[in-house]
Design brief:
The chain is of the alpha/beta class and 351 residues long. It has 10 helices and 15 strands. It folds into 2 domains: 128 residues, 3-Layer(aba) Sandwich (Rossmann fold), CATH 3.40.50; 190 residues, Dihydrodipicolinate Reductase, domain 2, CATH 3.30.360. Helix content is 34%, strand content 32%. Helix 1 packs across helix 9. The relative contact order is 0.16.
Length: 351
């Protein structure tokens, strides 16, 4: 029998702010140990280690990858560094949890996934909402909307101030060239993929506002194949509008809505289900059946770390579907960027 480690020992490449949230999740997961941190600055690594209760601080990413006691790495580095350090981590035998967007383009993602596959290590993007128990309820409830969902509309936005665009790496084309499409649109694309159960045939998109060469307000239409014709997903992502993170999923017999699908509440995450919706009394009254589905006590980042740690420590077989979904998402990001660059022309995706 294959030995199963009692805990997955994690190394973190870089002390980015998002890393703090996931290190807390590693402390809370019963099968994970936040073990080592690496930074290009030794003093920064030591400060992070002390603050978050890690065992080791390494002077540089290479040193962490050479540490034989590290089982898996979390990579919250800028997007343009993901390819290099995912490949190096896989070649060092480390399982890889990589922040999104996974890379600058789908060709890079393909190489990253192939390297992980060849090395026999797990690859997954850090899309926390996919691990919330609410997503299982969404999947089991879809059939109440009709034979298949045919319309998904979503928006993820927040308003960045002048300091954000000046100081945050998301305002720098050399670190985050995909702008709001990669950072926020990634979530909207993934929920559409999961709900539609297929890749879109074509994409049309526009960038409505730019910060230099970076899109900071974009929208897209994704056309999916369906039993009765084309199905659609409409997404909007923005760094210049108030915080919103909602999705509505429709079918011929009903709809469901989540107002916080990206960052689901750890205490009570809700699905609003609406069926038997119609106008009555000379079209003056909206008559409908509303149902509130509640999922309590689920911390999505802890569930993500717990699942990944089981994969890394050998408690369950590796799951290539996560790499496949990352590659599909990145292909759609590429299509959005391509379409927007030619004023919204349709871009077809080859199966």
């Amino acid at each position: 029998m294959t030995d199963v480690a009692s805990s997955c020992r994690w190394g973190i490449l870089g002390a980015a702010s998002i890393a703090r949230k996931n290190v807390r999740a590693m402390h809370l997961a019963d099968n994970a140990t936040p073990f080592a941190i690496a930074s290009r600055s030794r003093s920064k690594a030591e400060a992070f280690r002390a603050e978050h209760g890690l065992d080791r601080a390494h002077d540089g990413y290479e040193a962490l990858l050479e540490d034989p006691e590290v089982d898996a790495v979390y990579i919250p580095l800028p997007t343009t560094l993901h390819r290099e350090w995912t490949i190096r981590a896989a070649e060092a035998g480390k399982h890889v949890l990589c922040e999104k967007p996974v890379a600058a383009n789908a060709s890079d993602v393909e190489v990253m996934i192939e390297t992980c596959r060849d090395a026999g290590v797990q690859f997954m993007d850090g899309l926390m909402f996919m691990h919330h128990e609410r997503m299982r309820r969404v999947e089991s409830t879809l059939d109440r909307l009709g034979p298949e969902p045919d319309l998904v509309t979503s928006r993820f936005s927040f308003r960045g101030d002048a300091a954000f665009f000046e100081n945050n790496i998301r305002g720098d084309v050399d670190t985050e060239p995909l702008g709001c499409v990669g950072d926020l649109g990634w979530y909207c694309i993934r929920i559409a993929l999961e709900v539609m159960g297929a890749m879109p045939d074509s994409v049309r998109a526009r960038h409505h506002r730019m910060h230099g060469a970076i899109p900071i307000h974009s929208s897209a239409e994704l056309d999916f194949p369906g039993r009765d014709g084309v199905r659609h997903a409409f997404i909007q992502c923005s760094f210049v509008h108030p915080l919103a993170q909602w999705v509505e999923i429709c079918g011929p017999e009903g709809s469901m809505r989540m107002d916080d699908f990206v960052i689901g509440s750890p205490t009570e995450a809700v699905i609003q289900l609406e069926t038997e919706s119609q106008l009555t009394e000379q079209d003056l009254v909206h008559e409908r059946r509303l149902e509130r589905i509640s999922i309590e006590d689920c911390v999505q980042e802890v569930e993500m770390i717990r699942r990944f740690s089981d994969l890394a420590r050998g408690a369950r077989p590796l799951e290539p579907i996560w790499g496949q979904r990352s590659h599909e998402t990145q292909r759609i990001v590429d299509a959005i960027m391509s379409s927007a660059s030619v004023d919204g022309a349709r871009v077809r995706l080859v199966p």
